[in-house]
Amino acid sequence: MKLMNQLTQQLRALDEQDLTRKRRTVDTPCGPRVTVDGRELLAFCSNDYLGLANHPRLKLALQEGAAIHGVGSGASHMISGHGRAHAMLEERLAEFVGGHLESARALTFCTGYMANLAIITGLTAADREAEIFSESLNHASLIDGARLSRARVRVYPHADLEKLGAMLEASNAATKLVVTDSVFSMDGDLAPLPELLALCEQHGAWLVIDDAHGFGVLGDHGRGALEHFNLRSPNLVYMGTLGKAAGVGGAFVAAHETVIETLIQKARPYIFTTATPPALAHALLTSIELIEGQEGIKRRAHLGALVAQLDDGQVGLKLHRWQRLPSTTAIQPILIGDNAETMRAGAALYEQGLWVGTIRPPTVAPGTSRLRVTLSAGHSSMEVARLIAALNVLALERTSDESR
To answer: With contact defined as beta carbons under 8 Å apart, do 89 and 285 qualify?
Structure first.
């Protein structure tokens, strides 16, 4: 069959370039120590940054939520699916991050992907002349949201404030959105958010922040990039995910109440989808309590110590030809470059019982394939030391092989 042959050829081409993606089935709860196909592994590849995904209090809260609210929501939020648990969670989230936003209100979504699509398409829906200024390293959901909006999209180089400023200065659009990740998911570095906000205020633009990898982790109380940089402005539109550091699932948008009402009325990804199970919203109330409280403070401090361990001059990473990208976050990329070598490195670590993500195009640019190490507050310093030792030996072996 011709159509099937086309797909087969496409799949074969991916395999020949070492770009085939493969799933592994995990038999245990999310955490640093998992079992995959009967084999015990130490995982450095999840986004469970605070180690809350299997927290006893969250499991009890989810059980309680199901007992109170049932399982499914049954409809979209606009029909009958907006339950009391959803309303309580939105109020709590608005309170949690609202100190950095004027007249704050929050809106919950099934995923961060949907939230980003909703923000960008919702804010540009009434203005076909709108312009979007998108960071070159933005997440796929922000890129796709910009494409779906049908607005004019202009991409500025990574963290290039001068270039962005010139673009904004030249724009005559009435509706302007500057869209950026806060923590770049494949590089681990932080966007220059204070400077970006200043440009947006100067040029009358919205600053849309995807804080998927910052919410719960950044800031003294885990309020994310807004707290970390002490940002406050009516121009801010903030998206945080609830399935990474928060340990459960879903996402939310927080902004001025007028922005949120606009999304309710205009954002198709919100209007035309079934609401999340209310039990998840109920459990997330406990998650926010953990993030904000003493346990969250201790977990963030421990996570910071693990990141610092990688830098230790005596026992830290010494990668020779490989390059660890500059990052102070839980995301610690190790740039290798070649697809095949990246896959060999990942396989060698896996054989030693260490599960590290192997990232290749199109997720990253060609020639920049990498290992993506993600640390969690659930890891111990001894486990991180084991990873460091394995990486140092592996990098040295690769260098020695090439010198022969």
So the answer is: yes
- Tell me the domains of the chain and their CATH numbers: 22-51+294-403 (3.90.1150.10), 56-292 (3.40.640.10)
Helix (H, G, I), strand (E, B) or coil at 1: coil
Residue with tokens 């609830």: 242
Q: Return the ∠ at Cα 162 (arms to 161 and 163), rounded to 5°.
A: 95
What pLDDT is recorded for position 403?
Answer: 47
What does the pLDDT read at residue 402? Answer: 54
Q: What is the 3-state secondary structure (H, E, C) of 18-82?
A: CCCCCCCCECCCCCCEEEECCEEEEEECCCCCCCCCCCHHHHHHHHHHHHHHCCCCCCEHHHHHC
Compute the chain's Rg from CA coordinates. Answer: 22
- The confidence score (pLDDT) of residue 404 equals 46
Residues of the chain predicted below pLDDT 70: 398-404
- Cα angle at 239 between 130 and 305, to 5 degrees? 135
Which pLDDT value is given to residue 398?
Answer: 58
pLDDT at position 58 is 98
| Secondary structure (DSSP) of 310-377 | HH-TTTS---TTSEEPP--SSEEEEEEE-HHHHHHHHHHHHHTTEEEEEE-TTSS-TT-EEEEEE--T
Is residue 200 within a helix (H) or strand (E), and if so which, with residue range? Answer: helix 193-203
Alpha-carbon gap, residue 3 to 133, rounded angstroms: 38
Q: By the 8 A CB rule, do 50 and 219 touch?
A: no
The pLDDT, as a whole number, for residue 76 is 97
To 5 degrees, how large is the angle CA 114–CA 115–CA 120?
A: 100
Query: What is the reported pTM?
Result: 0.94
Instruction: Identify the pLDDT of residue 106.
Output: 98
Question: Can you tell me whether residue 178 is helix, strand or coil?
Answer: strand
What would the pLDDT profile of 47-58 be if each residue is shown by its tens digit? Answer: 999 999 999 999
Residue 300 to residue 329: CA distance in whole angstroms: 11
Q: Which pLDDT value is given to residue 271?
A: 97
CA-wise closest residue to 203 among 238, 224, 172, 234: 172
Contact 324, 400 (CB under 8 A): no
